Amino acid sequence: MHRIRQEDLPFRGSSHQFVGLEQGDTGISAFLFHGEPGSGPGPHHHPYDEVQFIQEGRGLYTVNGETFEAGAGDILVIKAGEVHSFRCIGESSLVQLDVHLNSTFIQENLGGDPPGIQSLA
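^ thats the sequence. predicted structure below, dont judge the formating
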C-alpha cells in the first residue's frame, strides 16, 4: 500500500501530477486538473489511452477536429494518438481527473504549449 496526499504531489500549470512510476510503481498516471476560466492545454496527443472524468464546471474540448462542450458528470475516453485539447469555459473552475494509462506522462505538444515530445515526469 502506498499513500500520498494530493497537496504533496508536484503542481505544474493547473494540475497536481500523480506519476505512477514515482508512486509505488503504479501502471497509471493522472493530472488532477483545477483550471480557471480560459485555462487548459493546447493540442497534443499521447501514445496511450487517457480517460478524463469531469467533476465540476464546463469545458470546450476538441478531439480529432471535433469540438464540443462537456461538463460535470461526463467521462471522455481519448484513445492513443487522438489529438486533443480543452479549455475551461464559463465563470467557474473546471475540475477533472485525467487518468493516463501509463506509469509516466508522455505528450507531444502540437501547438500552444512548447512543441515537441515531452516526458512530463
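The two ends are 21 Å apart (CA to CA).
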